[in-house]
Amino acid sequence: VEERFRSELSNMQSWLSQSAEAFLSSSGNMGENLPQAADFLTRHKQFATDITNKDTDVFTLLSRSKELGSNEKNQVSEFHHRYEQLKQTLESRVQLGSLYQQFHKFAKEMNASFDSLDSLLVSNRGFSDQRISNQMTQVFRMVQDTLTQAKHQGDKFVSLAKAVGTTDHNLQVDKAVDCVRRALNEHEQRISKVSQSWLEWQQVQESVDRINNVIEEIEMWIQESWEIIHTLEKEAQAVKTSEDAARLTTRVDNFKQQQRLQEEKLHIIEETVKKLHFEEHDHKLEEVKRKYKDIVDRMYQFGNKMVTVTETLRQKEIVERMEVPVILAQLRDAQVDEGQRFEMSARIEGQPEPKIQWLKDGVDVSSNADYLTTYLNCTASLRIDETFVDDSGIYTVKAANPAGQAQSSARLTVKSRSQLQAEIDENKPRFVKQLKNVNVSEGESATFDCVVVGQPEPEVIWYREEQLIRESTDVQLSFHGDHCSLTLKNTVPQDSGLYKVTARNTQGEATSFCRLNVQAVVRAPPRAPSPQYMQVAPSFAPALHNQTLVEGQRCMFEVRATGEPSPTVVWKFNNQQLVTREEIQVIEAQNNYHRLVIDRVGKEHAGIYSVEAVNAAGEAKSVATLIVSVPPTVVHAKSVTPIHHTSITHTPTPPPRPVQQQYDHHDTIRVVEEYMEKDVQELGISPSATPPEFVRQFQAEYRVEINEKIRMECLLVGNPRPKVQWLFNGRPIVPNTGFCQLTNVGDTYAVILNPVRAEHQGTYQLIAENIRGRTECSTVVTVTEQTVKETRESRGEAVAFYQQQEKRTIKRAGHPPHFTQTLVSVIAADEEEAKFEGVVTGSPSPEVVWTKDGEQISAATHRDIRFSNIGGRVSLTFANARAAHSGKYMCTAKNECGVATSSAQLVIRPRTVAPDFVQRLISKEVAEGDSLRWEVKVTGDPTPVVTWLRDGQPIPHCDEVRLIAESDGRHVLHIVKVEMADCGQFTCLAENAAGEARSTADLVVRPYGTEPGNYFHVTKVTQERQVAGQEVTRNQAFSIEQPVDKQLRP
C-alpha cells in the first residue's frame, strides 16, 4: 500500500512540475490586443477546468497521508502547498485576463464611437435642424460615458496587475499595463479632438440661430416701418404749419436712428454668412437686403419732401408775421463835459429782429474801437467811455429788416475843458455846515466837522486858542470833498478851549468857531501793575510711557505739565476720571510734576491711562498702557521684548541696585542697540481709533446772489471726535463776528451766510484732525448781482418807460475789483515749489493780468509757470522754482468799475538740507571712575552747528568734559572720569539754516567695584529732526534686556 501511495505521490508531483507549473511559466504573455487577450483568458480558463478535475485525486492523496510516516507526510504537505499556490495563481490570472479582455472590448467600442461621432460631425451640416442637434448631443454624451467606463476598467486592471505581478513572476504584466495606458492616452487625445470639433459645431449652430433671429427681427422692423411710412404720408397731407412739419421731420430723424441700427445688424450677419460659407442663407439674406433698401429709399424720399415743405411753410409764416422796425423812443440831443462817459440808447422792435447800424455824421462807427455798440432785448445802445471834443456830432441809429427800416438821430455836444474852466464862477469860501461845541470825558476822542464850499477850492486851517494845529499821532486831519474834520484822540483836560477853522481862497475867507470841554476822570489810587505774561498752550515733558509690571509691584506714572497760565491736570483710566482713593494716589508735586501712584497693581488695574492738561491757551494729552502679568517663576535666558506703543519722551533710567550674587568680570560699558522704531502719532492709541473722514463733502462750487441765504454742509466722522478749524481764503474764521454762522449737529458741520454779501466770495475750507490723522474739505463761493425778472409790457407802456428813463443819469450796476486775500511774499529753496495765492471779487468778473518786475507775463510766454483763476481765486504756481524766477510779482484785476492790484516778492534761496544723524547716540552704562566716549555723525548743508545738552542744559567744553569736532561731520563727547553725578539724559543738537535734529539717550553710572545687577535694563534712544517750516519728526528706539542668571544654567 505504501509503495502504491508513493507511486501516486510521485506521479502527482511530476504532473505538478512538468505540466501545471510549466503551463504557468510558458503562458505569461497577456497579449496587446483583443484577440490575444481573449486567447490568454481562454487557455487559462481551460487549464482551470483541468485543475478542478484533479481536485478529487489530490483530495484522496491527502486523506491517505494520515496513515503514513513523518517523511511521507512532509512530502504530501509540500505538494499540497504548491498545489494550492498553483490554484491561487491561476485564479488571479483568470480574473486579470477577464479585466484585460473587458478593457479591450471597451477600447474597441470607444474607437467605433469616435468614428461615428466624427462621421456625424462631418456629414450633418443642418445646423438649424433641432432634431439633428439633439442627436449629436446624445451621441457625444454616450461617447463621454463610454470613455469614463473604459478609464475605470483600465485603472482597475492596472491596479490588479501590479498586485498580481508581485507574486506571479512569470506573468508579463508590464507589457499589458503599457498597452492599457497607451490606449487610454489615445482615447484622451481623440476625445480632446472630438470635443474641439463638437465645440466648433455648437458655435456654428449658435451662429446660425443668431442669424435666423436677426433676420426675423429685421423683417419685423421692415413690416413696422412700412406702417409708419403710410401713417406719416397720411399726416403730411394735413400739415398746415411749419411746427407740424417739423414734428414729422423729427419722427423721420428717429426712424433714421433705428435704420442705422438695422444696417449694423445686416452688416454683421452678412460677414458671418461669408465667413462660415452658409450658402443656404444667401438667398434669404439677399431678399432681406432688397426689402431693407426699398424701405430706406422710401423714407429718404419722404424726408426730403418734408424738409422742402417745412422751409416753405416757415418762409410763409415769416412773411405773415413780418413787422417794420419801430423806434419806440427817439434819440435826444445831449451835452456832456469832456472826459465824461456817455451812452445813448433806443428801444427798437421789429419782426424779424432788425439789423442795427450806428452812424456819426453819416459815417458808420462799427470800425471805431472808441464806440461800443450793443443790441440786447430790443435795446440798441452806443457807449463812449471817455468823451473828447472830436466826439461832437450828429449820431444816427438805423434799424432794418426785410419788412422795412427806421432811423432816429440826435446831436451830441462835448464841451472842452477850457470852456468848462471859463464857466466856473469864482466865489469866496462859505460854511454850509458850521462847527458845534463838543463835550467829552477824559481819554475819549473828540471830533469837529464842517462843510465848506468855494471856488477855487479853499485852503482850510485849524487853530486852538489862536495856536496852529498840526497833524500828529493823536491829531488827525481829514478832507473828503467839501467835508473837513479834526479828530483829537485820548483827550486830556488841557485840550479844553476855543477851536477855530479858517477857509480862504483868492476871493476871500470864512471862519467858524466852537468850544471843547474835556471832563476830567476821577482816578483811584495807583495800584501795583499786574504781571503781564504770554499765554502758552500746555505740554508734557516728559510724557507718559507704557509699563509692563508683575502683580503686586508698585506703579507710578509721572509727567511734568508746562504752560502759561498754569494748566489744570486731570488723570483718567479707560476715559474715566481718577481721584485719590485707597489703592490709587493722585499727587501734585513741586516744579509742575504730577504723579499717579498704585502701590500694588492687580489685573483690574491693566488698561489705558491718560493725563490731560488744560488752560486758556489750549490743551495737551498723553496716553500710556499698563500691562499686568503673572509673576515669573524662573528666568532662563536673555530675551528682548519689543514694546509696540511708547511715548514720545521718557524719564532717565535709574541706577541699578547692588546685588549679592557674584558674576564673572565683563566690560564696564554696555551698549544696547535699538530694537524698533515707532511713529509718534501711533503711540498709545486705541486700536478702535479711526482717522477723520468726510462721508459727504461740500459741493465743488456754490453760486449765490447778493442778499440771499445759503447753507453749505458736509458730513464728517472720526474716532476720537476730530477737532475742526474753519478757514476763509486761507485765514481762520473768528466765530461770533457776524461774518458767518458756524454750526455742528452730530456729525454734520455747516457754514451759513445770511444775508450773502460781496465780501463772502472766496474759498471756504474745513480742516479736521485727531490722533489718527488729518483731512480737509473745501469749496468756492461765487457771489453774483441780483437779476431783474423781465416783465412783458405793452408798447405804449414801454414808450412811456423809456421816455422817463432818458431823463435820468445812466448808471451801470456793479462794484470795482477788491482783493479779499492779498498776495504774500514767498521764500523758497532752489528747485522747490513756490506759489502765490489771492482772492479777488468784483462785478462784473474782473480781468486778471500778472506782471513780473513791471513786465506782463502769461501762460504763452512762461510755460514753466502755472496760471489759475477759478471763481475769483487766483494763483501763480512755480513747480520747479529757480533763481531766474526771483522778483516782484503783481496781480492786476480790472473791470469797467475800477482796478485793484496786489503784489508780493519771490525770493529763491540756495537749496539747503536739514541736519540728520547718520550715527546717533546709544544709551550706555559705565562704572564710576571709568571714561566715556560718545560719538555721533551728522550730515546737513550748510554744515550744522552741534551743541551737547545734559537734562536740557548746554554742556560747556572743559578739561573734565571735552567736546571734539572731527572731520566728516563726526562729533565726540569725552568724559575723562565718570562720576555718579553724571547720570542723566544727554542730547546732541545739530542746527543749520534748514532746520535742526536731535539725538537723545541715557547714561547710567553704577558704583565703583559693583557688577551689573539682575534687573531689567531699559534703553530708549530718541531722535528728532525738523526741517524749517515743517513739523518735527521723531524716531524712537526702545528695548528691554534681561541679563542671563548664570546660577540657573545647568
TrEMBL record:
Taxonomy, superkingdom: Eukaryota
GO molecular function terms listed in the Swiss-Prot or TrEMBL record: enzyme binding
Presence of the UniProt keyword Disulfide bond in the record: yes
Domain Ig-like: 325-413, 429-517, 538-629, 692-784, 817-907, 915-1004
Record's subcellular location: Cytoplasm
GO CC list: cytoplasm
UniProt keyword Disulfide bond, yes or no: yes
PROSITE patterns associated with the record: IG_LIKE (PS50835)
Keyword set, alphabetical order: Cytoplasm, Disulfide bond, Immunoglobulin domain, Repeat
Similarity annotation: Belongs to the protein kinase superfamily. CAMK Ser/Thr protein kinase family.
Record protein name field: Ig-like domain-containing protein
